[in-house]
Design a protein that fits this description.
globular
Length: 201
Amino acid sequence: MTSPNTPKTPGPPAPAATSPTLSATEITTPRLRLRKARDADRAGFVELQTDPQVRSHLGGPRPRSAVEQYFDATGVQYVTDKPGTFVIADRTTDRLVGTLLLHRRPSDLPGHVTEEGGELELTYVLRREGWGKGLAFEAATAALGTAAAELPDQPVLIVTQTANTRSLALAARLGFRPVSTFEAWEAEQTLAVAGLHAFLV
């Protein structure tokens, strides 16, 4: 998953507390709709948190009872309240396929390319039924392209377990290049970076 164009080295972002992220609340692609959460998404969210295969590189599955209690207490719509947080839904059926986040990586976490931290970070997770169909690539490309049209050029990060070869392959296909590895959460993590404006359409 390498890009034919190596992104230029962008300047450092402003501190995370004042740096904006993506303001769009809905993004559409030929097959997908990135949107805010709805009550009907609850079963999909529960599956994402409890499926052992989906969670194999994310700390393992969470107890279903704990996940259900969380949604009972907070509701489903709260999940995507934060700007840059989306449900990935099938454009035809509106069924939840996964989630995508484009947030600022907290400066107190390891894995940065600037001294200030707070870089944009892309994360995504799909239900197993959506694997192997290019849906994560389609969703990520759309979100990054929308952000590139709105925000100044800056680094975008992907952090994933080095053992997660599927995620690393997707990152490479998107044009992210690995720059370092580090230990966190009892596993080796790979940090990959791209310039945001490499995704301008």
